[in-house]
Design brief:
five-stranded parallel beta sheet, 214 residues, three-stranded antiparallel beta sheet, binds BIS(adenosine)-5'-pentaphosphate, 8 strands, single chain, 16% strand, alpha/beta
């Protein structure tokens, strides 16, 4: 049975960390809208030029742009056997239109909401570093790379994200509470939501996620 998974959680709650692991474990694609936008910015595409200032400010990119990207990505063959959406849907409009993209005959969505309090988020994001090349995620205290500032996986430089400053994180948290929490309620009403405690070691959170999928 195909696993069609959505990760919902505030910025820095561990969506990317856990989604990468889960995707490897179940051999399904990890579809991160944040990563897709960052790639577009790095490639200097029209989408990237439009998205860069919005992302840097911590606001959300428009629903129409995001729906276009996700529609195209889910149409690729590798998503037919299951997928993990990380960072999408983030608004009620995105959630409602996702149903139409996926279609009626699809396996039901399993929506995982990672619960992490705002105080913990600030510390996680302040010390996050990501690989500019392969996207691996580190934390300078909890999960540091073996060699300072070099990615363990590909050897490229690891850097802080441009939107990981205090002002942007504050706006991203606001956007989460105002625009994305209603999405969790949308799925709760449909009995698709599984709430997972996101506080604790990465391995322990991963075990909770696996259990919640049973
Ligand atoms: P996106 O890239 O999705 O950012 P985000 O939601 O703010 O989430 P983050 O990537 O910051 O955090 P995460 O939950 O993945 O945490 P991570 O695993 O890295 O989106 C960026 C921007 O793109 C948005 O602001 C918006 O502008 C735009 N965008 C994207 N999708 C959109 C959409 N659908 N609609 C509109 N706009 C959209 O972990 C964080 C840190 O904590 C790391 O250092 C990690 O090592 C550490 N950590 C992880 N787990 C643990 C643990 N259990 N204990 C301690 N530390 C941990």
């Amino acid at each position: 049975m195909a696993l069609n998974i959505i990760f919902i959680g505030p910025p820095g709650s561990g969506k990317g960390t856990q989604a990468k692991r889960l995707a490897a474990q179940h051999a399904i694609p990890h579809i991160s809208t944040g990563d897709m936008l960052r790639e577009a910015v790095a490639d200097g595409t029209e989408l990237g030029r439009q998205a860069a200032p919005i992302m840097a400010s911590g606001a959300l990119v428009s629903d129409d742009l995001m729906l276009g990207i996700v529609n195209d990505r889910l149409a690729k063959a590798d998503a037919a056997g299951g997928f993990i959406l990380d960072g999408f849907p983030r608004t009620l409009v995105q959630a409602e239109r996702l149903d139409a993209i996926i279609g009626n005959g699809a396996e039901p969505l399993r929506v995982l909401q990672l619960l992490v309090p705002d105080e913990a988020i600030v510390r996680r994001i302040a010390l996050r570093r990501t690989c500019a090349q392969c996207g691996a995620i580190y934390h300078l205290e909890n999960n540091p790379p073996a060699n300072d500032s070099v990615c363990d996986r590909c050897g490229a430089e690891i850097v802080a994200r441009p939107d990981d400053n205090e002002e942007s994180v504050r706006r991203r948290l606001e956007a989460f509470h105002r625009q994305t929490l209603p999405v969790a309620t949308f799925y709760k009403v449909k009995s698709a939501l599984r709430e997972v405690d996101g506080v604790g070691p990465v391995d322990v959170v991963f075990e909770r996620i696996e259990k919640s999928l049973l």
